[in-house]
GTPase Der
Amino acid sequence: MANIVAIVGRPNVGKSTLFNRLVGMRKAIVDETAGVTRDRHYGKCEWNGKDFSVIDTGGYTINSDDTFEMEIRRQVELAVDEADIILFVVDVMGGITDYDAAIAEMLRKSKKKVFLVTNKVDNNDRIYFSAEFYALGLGDPYNISSASGFGTGDLLDAVIESL
Ligand code: GDP
Ligand code: MG
């Protein structure tokens, strides 16, 4: 099976920023063609000689008769179906929101490999805030700053280990 890594999370946590960092200069965003791909960005990432595809979920189309929460759920379901590995991004400064908790529950029920990613750890003081995210029941949070790149190497090391 192709190695597919999906980035999920509620809006504004930094999914697209992380996607752009992972895909980097080879921003091989394929398309937003028909069907399930229509509201997703695809890219390629290579780390230590291993290649995988990355999906950035969220953002473009909200079905008008869907509620916001339904739309987030739908995107997480698609990601779980499509991907081998899920990067579940939360905002380290935002605390655990209801959306975060709902997504975490869906992901715990899936049998997929999930990495909990606490984003926006822009300085060392913020590492402290990631501890509360253990309550999501998804193991150790990976502290990163998608903006600066802090922590993304350690995250990628762990991701390719489980490919
Ligand atoms: P998405 O809705 O989850 O795709 O989030 P975006 O990638 O669009 O980012 C939402 C906002 O968070 C933007 O203003 C980003 O610049 C900001 N952001 C993303 N990553 C970081 C980060 O590591 N640190 C900080 N301080 N801001 C970030
Ligand atoms: Mg986005």
In short: Strands lie at 4-8, 41-47, 50-56, 85-91, 113-119, 141-143.
